[in-house]
Amino acid sequence: MREKIAPPRYLAILGTPPLINSNFVQPPMNPDKLKPVYTSADIDSVRLAGQSPGEYPYTRGIQPTMYRGRLWTMRQYAGMGDAEESNRRYHYLLSHGTTGLSVAFDLPTQTGYDSDSPLALGEVGRTGVAISSLEDMERLFAGIRLDQVSTSMTINATASTLLAMYVAAARRSGADLRKLSGTVQNDILKEYIARGTYIYPVVPAIRLTTGLIAWAGEHVPQWNTISISGYHMREAGCTAAQELAFTLANGCAYVDAALAAGLTIDSFAPRLSFFFNAHSNLFEEVAKFRAARRIWARWMREHYGATNPRSWMLRFHTQTAGSTLTAQQPENNIVRTTIEALSAILGGTQSLHTNGYDEALALPTEQAARIAIRTQQILAHESGVPDVADPLGGSYYIEALTDQLEAEAESIFAKIAQLGGTLRAVESGWVQQQIQHSAYLWQRQVDSGEAIVVGVNKFQSEVEPDPHIERLNPELERRQIERLRALRTRRDQASWQHSLHQLREAARTTANLMPHIVTAVESYATVGEIADTLRQVFGEYRETITV
Prior knowledge:
This protein is an alpha/beta fold. The protein is 48% helix and 7% strand. Helix 6 packs across helix 21, helix 10 crosses helix 16 and helix 20 runs antiparallel to helix 21. The chain is globular and about 75 Å long. The N terminus is likely disordered.
């Protein structure tokens, strides 16, 4: 049975859309379509006049002095094996100058299965750290003051459970919850679009998303309650314009859902954050970030009626592009990552992760992680780039490219409106189709040699190096399972059963589920048990695409 979804409020923003071919796509930017030189005739001088960093619509950055006042947060996305193994890597990164932690979770944790589930066999700790219980979360951050470090968690379908575990672990360590800072990704729409780690149907999944937003606003007020992500859509193959458009359209869908749940715009909008990809086309990426701020500020103030300037500000984290890394000549990836990191800094990011050069082969080694963080430190302290806010502002090319990407995004917004809004566009498979088509066009250009990838289709080496790669100890999975099973025998069975019963009953109502999830977590209910309880009520999502 098809779920009924109310038309999104932002359709009023977009107005009556023009007629657009249903096969509309955004191909990768073709250099041949760029002018050889840009002049004042290519920019809107009236629109540009009077805009300074820190002023609406924040095209030039959200702070007047940007990095002269405070550098971006330097993060390294890390997590592997069990909690103890990842804890060692976190201490290593912090000792080498990382200023924020980013947690990668394994696939069982992301999709709501415990480490001892038959469906988790062979996947425990592979793509990130295995977290099944509050005990695991406490081990993960042992020896780290959680109220003194910013933590980002890349988790979506089980975001409510993992944030509850993080908050419970912080409370038990004596941390001041009102000082906890960080981000939980909590962006389920892009899972249906590009990444695939969803569990529940769309409507109950968004209910969990908005419930987390409301609960965190009260209990952990400095926490970013969602990181609306274009990163994974870009990794799947979309263009810069598509990443810009699909990300902001998803953002509006979440705003609509929060408003429908009874929240007021200025009560939650200041804690919304975004997550963008940084690809190798330096100037296109800078322009994309600038256009994103301008579009979001306009929508928040003029159409959603937000009055708090912090609600207008688009704050974002950036990660360099994993899809640009090559297994061939992996040392070249250091240069790629540097260019991509530079684009994020020039574009005004608030937080940055730089990929390890060996990530096309395996999880990054300690050496690769150290080079990645040193790349950020060199850009911060030796390049001079942070000394001036928006140093490319006023460039004829950058300003024209910013306008161009904004216009391309607006045409995509119009098509989404024609289809009935973001949720309908996702349900029908249209968004997925656009990304797949762009990915196909790019791959065809690489295969033909029209697009050059150094070391892959040109400038190859006859003998490829055999680099050292990170390998997980197979004993970690066994140890994780043994600990989980031991926990199940030690916990208070009555408290555990009651907490899951209460969660199940609340799921049958319209109540916010976060308080019940927190109680279940503190009763040592596991990620899989909480997910299974909600599966019993919500069911599971099955992708159906009709284009």
